[in-house]
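Team,

Forwarding the record for the chain on the shared tracking sheet. I've put the sequence and predicted structure together so nobody has to dig through attachments.
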Amino acid sequence: MSGTFVGMPAFPKAAREAVANPTLRGNLRHATHTIRAKRAAAVAEVSDWAELREAGRQIKDHTLRRLDQYLVQLEAAVTAAGGTVHWAADADEANRIVTRLVKETGESEVVKVKSMATQEIGLNEALEAEGIRAYETDLAELIVQLGKDRPSHILVPAIHRNRGEIRDIFRAEMSEWGRPAPEGLTDTPAELAEAARLHLREKFLRAKVGISGANFMVAETGTLVVVESEGNGRMCLTLPETLISVVGIEKIVPTWRDLEVFLQTLPRSSTAERMNPYTSTWTGTRDGHAGEGDGPRTFHLVLLDNGRTDTLADEVGRQALRCIRCSACLNVCPVYERAGGHAYGSVYPGPIGAILSPQLRGTASEIDASLPYASSLCGACYEVCPVAIDIPEVLVHLRERVVEGGPVTRAGNRVVLKPAKGHAAERAAMRAARWAFSRPGALRAGQRLASRTRGLHPRTLPGPGRAWSAARDLPAVPAEPFRDWWQRTNGGTTEEGTAK
């Protein structure tokens, strides 16, 4: 994924530093609470929201089960409409393809639509290394780029910045990237938006190459779809002569009818709007259709794997590939609200990032091994997810993977799971619990012993457990085990109602 996150510390350390920043916490609290309330109101307007949510889940699951078929169908449809399809197994291959395509045009600069996939592969950095400058045109992405910063939110990448900080960034940095900020620029939203509009307008009119992602790809027609709120995406998709779209292979839907479901659920879950102000669709090139029209004369689609096929092979974890990047889970997450997006060390922050990043990148690194623990498992993320991703279930599943072992390697014909570092005590505790729960007599004896010695129990745990009990009260052991209470109050019968 993006090189801008390389070398970041594991989540606990990064989160500890973020929580100590009162300005950051204030910015996050205000923004997430505002978006959360608006989303709840927008969703409440729809009487069949539960049915739409279930329909979205079923469409995504159906597509993922037949992903190979729909990708081949998509390739044929895009090619028939005048486009060219490229397949990229990983980030390096995708960057090489895009860099080559831009160089073939003879251009040294590109305009970009906000794209998580291109951030994931570090495309801007790869282009810069080859002398090609990429200009972000989404307002929040522009703020991040001008501020030499990293995105911290899926929908609002500059959510960690307040208006005063944005004004200072525009004043200091805009002149280095093009048209400078107006004299006397204030921090009022209207003035900031106008400064960005003037700065970007000249880039839109000059650029010959545009780079985008896509929210959806329709297999039956080869159509790509981008939804956005500012109009910058429409400019990037229609004005340049060459358009290169880098899209994850999971973004596909079978038919236009399927698309209808997501065009209802995505805007309400993300921006709390009934529909997006700009929904742009394009199929191939303008020359691939009768007559002149908007759109590129040359269109390239780069289909990105980069760990998605491996994720698809995991029966529990694959549900993360349903994600439509609405960011609703971030806005209700108590952990994200306090720690912010940078602590996750990935372009995918928050609850979805905690399950997606470790699957795309593996759990070998310290930061990826820590992400499944970046959650209280409260379940709020699952409740708001418009495609019903059970994020807590996947988090627990990934924690098991981290505890059981590290990266998978091959030794001859055998697959070997390397022992994970730093989790020996947890593995020992889990094995002890498994031993006890599989032996009723030992479990009963242990429960009675714990009840009779409850007055001697410490208030905090020793050793590695100290980190857990430092922020939590140890639950009090009851004076009597449940089994003993049941037998005493039910005449000596077991839970099943038979005599013991």
